[in-house]
Structures are given as C-alpha cells and as structure tokens.
TrEMBL record, chain B:
One GO CC term on file: plasma membrane
InterPro entries: CPA3_antiporter_subunitB, MnhB, MrpA_C/MbhD
Membrane topology note: Multi-pass membrane protein
A Pfam family this chain is assigned to: MnhB
Keyword check for Membrane: yes
Species of origin: Paracoccus tibetensis
Family under the similarity heading: Belongs to the CPA3 antiporters (TC 2.A.63) subunit B family.
Record keywords, A-Z: Cell membrane, Membrane, Transmembrane, Transmembrane helix
Broad class of the protein's primary localization: membrane
Record domain MrpA C-terminal/MbhD: where: 11-76
UniProt subcellular location: Cell membrane
Name the UniProt record assigns to this protein: DUF4040 domain-containing protein
Record domain Na+/H+ antiporter MnhB subunit-related protein: where: 189-304
Amino acid sequence: MSPLDLLVVAPLVFMVLSLLAGGWQRSLLALAIATMAALSVWLMTLDPGTAHVVGGWELPLGVLLRADGLAQMLVPAVTLTAGLTGLYALHQFAPESHASNAQTAAFWPLYYLMWSAANAAFLTTDLFNLYVTLEMASIAAVAMAAMGSVRAALRYLLIALLGSIFYLLGVALILSRYGTVDVTLLAGMAEADFATALALALMTGGLLVKAALFPLHGWLPPAHAAAPAPASALLSGLVVKIGFVITVRLWFEGLAAAATPAGLHVLGGIGALAILFGSLQAIRQESLKALVAYSTVAQIGYLFLAFPLIAGAGHAWAGLSFHAVAHMIAKAAMFLAAGLMLKAAAGPRIADLAGLARAMPLTVTAFGLAAVSLMGLPPSGGFSAKFLLVDAALRQGQAIHAAVMLIGGLLAAVYLFRPLAVAFSGSETPVVPPKAPSMVAAPLALALAALLLGFAGGPLADLATGGAPATVAPEPLPALEDTVETASEDEQ
Amino acid sequence: MSLVFDLVLCLMILGTAAASLLMRSALGGIVFFIAFGNLLGIAWLSLGAVNVALAEIAIGAGVTGILLILAHARLSAMGDPVECEPTSPWMRAAVAVICGGLIVLLSVAVLSISPTDRMGAQIATLMPALGIENPVTGVLLAFRAYDTLLETFVLLGALVAVWAIAPPGGWPQRPASLAIATPVSLTVIGTFSRVLLPASLVMAAYLVWTGSDLPGGAFQGGTVLAGGILVAALGGAIALPRADDMRLRSVLVLGPAMFLGIGLGGIALGRFLSYPVGLEKALIVAIEYALALSIGATLALLVAGKPVPPAAVQEGGD
C-alpha cells in the first residue's frame, strides 16, 4: 500500500459516490476530508524521493509516482485548501438543492475531479500522464468557470485546449526521440539537440497558457472573477499551479540539458513583467474579484521570476516551492473572504464594501491576513518565500530581479490596502445577512495557515530541498533565522 | 501500400481539409470535415495503426460529425444565419505564417530524430502473461491502465460539465429531443434505427471481445454504441433519459467505478491496479465491457447536450 496512488484514487471514489448519492454530500465531504488528511500526513512521513510504478509495470513503459519535496509540500497544501473550500462550498452549493439546481449537482463531482487532478499532477513524473491530469483539471476548471460566465468559460476552454495540443505535440516529439516520457529517465539521457529544444519550447508554451503567465494570462481574470467564490479559490489556488509544476519538472529535471541559461532568463524576464503588469492592472480594477484575479496574474510572475535564480547561490528552489504553497493557501482564503464580503455588500465594486469591517470583522480579518501573506510581510508564508527569493537574487548579483520583487510587494500593498481601507471606512455598520459559522471559519483558517506558514519556514524549506532535482544548487540549507542574520550582515 | 495510393490519399486529405476550411457554407464545411476524418482513418490504416483508424473514424468523423450537424441545426433553429464571417487578410496571413512556421519546425525536428523504440521489446515480453494478443489493449488496460483510468474520469467529468450549464428550469430534465422534425425522414430513420440499435449493441460487444486479441476495444465499442443510441434518438425510437435518472447514473459510473474497484482490489495483492496472476484477461475484459457501456452512454449524452426545460424538449434540431 502506498499513499501515492491513494491520494489520486480516493477523490475519484468520492466523485463516483457524489454522482450516485447527491443528497449525501455533507457526509461524503466529511469522509473525504478525513481520508485525504490522513493520506497527506502519511505522504509527509515518507522519505523524500520515495517512488513506485503504478501496478508494478516497470519503466520506461509504466507510470512512476514519486513523493519529492515539492509534492510533499503541495499535496498537503491541496488537502488544506480543497478541504476548507469544500466546507465553504457546502453553503454555496447546499446539497439539499442538488435535485433542483444544476450547478449544485455538477459542482461536487467536479470538485473531487479537480482534487484528484491536482494530486495526480504533483505526484507523477510521467509527461503523458501529466497531460491526462491537465485535461482532468481543465475540464473541471472550465465547468466551474462556466457557473459564473459561460462566455469566459468558453474562451478559457478554447485557449486551454490550444495549450494542451502544444504540450501534447512536445510529448510526442520526446517519446519518439528518447523512447520514454518519464522525467526521471529523461534527466539522464536528454541532450540539447533541435528536437529536444523544440519539444521543450512547445510544451512550455502550452503550459504557460495553463499557468496564465503574462502575456498568456488573458483568459484568467474574466474566468476567475466571474466564477462562484469556492470555484475561484480552487481555480486560482490549485489549477494554475499544475501548469507551473510541470514546467518546473521539465526545466529543472527531465529536459534540464536543453534548458539554456538564456531560456531561463527569458522566463524570468516574463515573470518580472507579469509581476509589474498584474499588479498595475490590479490597482486599476474597480471590482473586488477582478482585483483578486489580477493579483493571481502578478503572483504567478514570482514563480517564474525565480527560474534563473534556481541554479545559483541562495535558496531560490525553497523560495519557489514555498511561494507556490503560500500563494495557494492565501489566494484561496482571499477569494472565499471576498465572496462573503460581496454577498453582504451592495454591489461588486470595491466602493460597495464601505463599513463591512464592522459588520463582518472575522471575514475582513481573513482578507487582511491573506493580504499580509500576498504582500510578503513577516511573519507570513509569503514573506518567507519572497525573502528566500530576494536573498538568492542579491547573492547572485541580480539586483533587477530583487528590485522587481520588492516593487511587486509594494504594488501588492497598494492594491490590497484599497479594499481594506474602504471596508474600514465610514461610521455606519451595514446590516448583513447572518452567515453559517463554517463559512466564516474556512477563509479565516486558510488565512491563518498562510500566516503561520512563515513560522514553519525552516522545516518547510528543508522539506522542499529534500529530493530536489540535481540541477538545484546542492548547497546545504541553514536555518531561516541564520539566513536572516547573514543577510543583514551582508548589508552592513 | 503503393506510393501512388499514398500520394492520392495525401492529396485527398489536403483537399478535403482545404475545402472544409474555405467553404463559405458551414454545412458544406462540416460535410468535408467528415470526409476528411474518414480519409485520415484510411491513412492510419495504411500506416498499420488499425486501432487508431477505428477511433479516428468513429470519433473524429462519426460522433464529431453528428455533433457539428446538430450544432448547425440548433443554431439555424435559433434564426441566426450560420455563415462564416470573412476573416481579415492580415489575420489569415498571420495564421498562415504561424502554422507554416510550426510545420517547418516540426518537420525539421521529426526528420532529425531516428526513432528509438525502447518500449516495444518490453511490451513483447510482458504480453504473454496477460493472456491477450492485442498490444494496444495491453498498454491501455494493463501497462498504462493508470492513464486510461484517469481518462475515463475526464470523459465522465465532461458530461458533468455539460450538466453544469443547464438553463434555469432545465435541471434535472432531459436533453432537447434529437428527433427529426420532417415526418417522412423521422419514419425512415426511426425504422432504420430499430434495426441499427440492436445491431450496434452486438457490434459493440464484438469489438470489445475481439479487442483482446485484434484491433478493437472499449473505446471503439463504446463509440459504436453511442452512434446506435444517437441514430435511435434521431429517429424518435428512444427518448433520452433525465439527468437524475438513477439507472442512467449507474450506467455512467459503471465503467469508471469497476475500473477503480478492480484497481483497489489490486492493493490486496500488493499494488493498486495490479491484476492477480491468471485472472488478468478476465478482469481486463470485465473492465472493458463495463467501460464500453459507460462510454457509449456518456458520448451519446455529450452529443445530445445539456438538459433543457420540458417545454423546450420538443424544439430539437432537424
């Protein structure tokens, strides 16, 4: 028995059950959260690098599942994010209405499909299997986006399919060139020839669409802003990370031989532009959910800005893994909190939030705590991630990268303080409809988790570096506190 | 096959592709697209990939063709003229340059590769233990059963995604009726489909059974079944079920659930999705039959579309 395949299979079992027993979603969700939490804990106790083939069919034919540091961080984060989002969704998609409401009936099976897809994508090292997981996630994501806006969802579907085709073209080239699609095998045999470079470029292009990296982000803000809050939380938290993680598997492990420094710098440069563009767009938004959606465009930029820093001095790999986790949790918290605030507010605009801080203090607190992590203020998970990245950039003399990250933090403060300031403004307390306790608790718990993640910085950074691919700088990792001291000494 | 045959085939494929793109009438474009799919199937045949050929003709030409024709009929029924807007010359030029460049790059890359087949030998040594002869089935249901399992859930998820966009009042009703509006055509197709539906069931069963040793299998069988169901619905011989019909739900999840169940049973023997020695063929065939039923029902409902309010059921396409 192994948690690696069960983490993928268990949500699928729940998907089948949710299709057969629509009225039992509450019990199913409780059972699913308990099961997935137990499996996640089991996963974290495995030695980094633990791997096995599915069904006992050996490589290069079979499919390898592996628990490396990145997966051991992301899968438990998915459990936390999806689990709490599910508790929130029990109210938005109340199981009692499954017989009369199509969205309720469709949400729960798609929710489990997406959960399975995220775990499957983070745990497999097989490029073709990753394609299947992309399809699982895309189908669920497009359908959830369609619950808000069919138009935005159709656009998302078409562009996601285009991304899939480019990715699949690359996989086909790799298969005929090397006779295998397993990342761990490719790592030992990939060469920097034309076919490999083209395959890498095609796959990366397709994945950047899925990860919504600027300038391929156009589909994300309308889809994420229009979707119901729990769907937005899953789309921004889970789905965009899948494209990102596959890109990482290609560039730093499977096809690292063809990943030239120039290519890494191009991705880093695009990441920098994404931070600036996404932040500036977020500042310009009038609607709260559009603001949060553009914030995702900006935060995805950090993930790619880190690419040219990975192989150099410092701990960019840990920072990158950390940022993926911190953003997943904080952004889910923010979308859920925004959903509650908008339900209570008079309209979708930021100006409509006036006085909400007095009417729903816990929800606005959750929004604020999530904002702390997204801005990268201590002691949050976002701070640890950005600190490690800025530190790595400075050590490598990449002042521009460091500056962009710091400016991005400032811009995030600008766009995130605005809704908070409005929520605290005025002197009247608007009357808001009462909310179920678990609906208020879910974003608060996620935001607290994002905040507390910073305190677990050292162990988590160790976890990320454990089982990291060979291309990552093999420098031993000091405790985070030591790093802080060294950095301040460096400045002196 | 002979060079002349291949050349003629290539010309016909390019010709039908160009015709379906350039045709101003959408219906004409669809007809050429179906012809294009069938020709592609023949191309796969001439390359010796019979399984791919079957899938291409059944899904690429058959089911997709019905889907496009139905979409055309429904759009026409809404009153909009279904014409392709003329694209700007700059747009055409840009698309031509991008596609042309990609084709050149891909051709250079493909020609630079001397194909390595590292898996063929491995498959050949593993096949005898499975007790089946068709290596494609071996890959789909054993060596890479994990991919196939996840794919079956993609298909199921696609149908749930269609449900998600049911209009207000449409849930959990039936999809819009597919029955043809013209009485004469309805009678002809109705009579024909009463023969075709049982025949497609037999043919699907045959394709799944023969898929163990010869080209065929659950996907091909399921598609043939979906075709039979769709023609019967077009002829008014059957009514499509309500989305909350528990019998329907059971059929939809039967294949994926059986696959999961047998996979989980493997844990008792050591690994998820490992088959007990001696029972490989029996379990594979059982999964395939269940999958074919589920795939057939899912594909047919995917083509039929979202549930609609009862009043709209009769306003289907023609």
